[in-house]
């Protein structure tokens, strides 16, 4: 089982609709979860982070965390063509010698159709 | 402005050659990371360093080497032992464990 898993897509959503992106993780002890957006040829940029169970909203973005089920999701409301990108889920996991590391999923490619 | 600077933006490697990718940060962050990204893939951890003069291997360290002589700098050398080096390389840093990573703009490495 991969440490962090995402559906690679592509996910196609009509403009103005809600895009829903999902991510599951393997380490029950994980405490910090992030969503990054990456445009083609660019570096990832942080768009949401969540540490507690439940929902966290920021503008059109909502992150949802369910630690019991070990999944985190990202909802994008009123999707715009500029939201077309690859979305990376990242989770802090325990590494060797107690050092923690941030592990990324493979990313979900999202396309918003005008 | 504080941030992470990676150079060069594009790099070409000849057969049997070692090349070094630069990563400098002025965020006063202790921890720094190197990732590799292949087309259509997520980020895979190469090496990371939590403090000066100390670093750990990530998931795909073979064929790579690093040094951390200064807090601000974490260069990555792609050695000739790395047979498939063509990828997008990203450097990142964090203020403390559990916090989000800040990324540089990346270096795209290709084979001549």
Structural commentary:
The complex is a heterodimer of chains A (114) and B (112). Chain A is built from no helices and eleven strands. With 114 residues, chain A is mostly beta strands. In chain A, strands 2, 4, 5, 9, 10 and 11 form a six-stranded mixed β-sheet that branches. Helices cover 0% and strands 50% of the residues of chain B. Chain B contains no helices and eleven strands. The termini of chain B are far apart. The A-B interface holds A 4, 6, 8, 31-32, 34, 42-46, 49, 51, 88, 90, 92, 95-97, 99-107, 109 and B 33, 35, 40-45, 48, 50, 56, 58, 90, 92, 94, 97-101, 103-106.
Low-confidence stretches of chain B: none
| Percentage of residues in DSSP E strands of chain B | over 45%
What general outline of chain B do the C-alpha atoms trace?
Answer: globular
What structural category arises from helix and sheet content of chain B? mainly beta
> What is the number of helices of chain A?
0
The number of distinct β-strands of chain B equals 11
> What is the helix fraction of residues of chain A, given as a range?
under 10%
Distance between the termini of chain B: 35 Å
Q: Report the biggest beta sheet of chain B as strand number plus sense, adding barrel if it closes.
A: 7 strands, mixed
Please outline the helices and strands:
The complex is a heterodimer of chains A (114) and B (112).
Chain A: E1 4-6, E2 11-14, E3 19-25, E4 33-38, E5 45-50, E6 54-58, E7 61-66, E8 71-76, E9 85-94, E10 100-104, E11 108-113
Parallel strand pairs in A: 2-11
Antiparallel strand pairs in A: 1-3, 3-8, 4-5, 4-9, 6-7, 7-8, 9-10, 9-11
Chain B: E1 4-7, E2 10-13, E3 19-25, E4 31-37, E5 43-51, E6 54-57, E7 64-66, E8 76-78, E9 87-94, E10 102-103, E11 107-111
Parallel strand pairs in B: 2-11
Antiparallel strand pairs in B: 1-3, 3-8, 4-5, 4-9, 5-6, 7-8, 9-10, 9-11
